[in-house]
Amino acid sequence: QAQLVESGGGLVQPGGSLRLSCTASGFTFNNYPVTWYRQAPGKERELVTSISRYGGITNLADSVKGRFSVSRDNAQKTVYLQMNNLKPEDTAVYYCNVGQVWGQGTQVIVSS
Question: How far apart are CA 19 and CA 78, in angstroms?
């Protein structure tokens, strides 16, 4: 059964950093691009960034450019979202996605 599990969310002060992880199981992870989305309260889900199967960044939202980066470790079947200089508007539930498979999400709250 294909599964994605996100972790690493939490409460952080503005200007702080977090690293989210998305770990896959049950399918050949290395063959697929991975996309991070986020959904803030009362808003639609938005694409944050995507990474190709080879590790190239294929999408990056304007709102996170210069602050967020994505990487993957295919041996660990894990994709990472490094988030720096976090802002209150980054508060959201963050999800990773591969095709029809979605993780359960991890909550990020940026607040002083």
Answer: 12
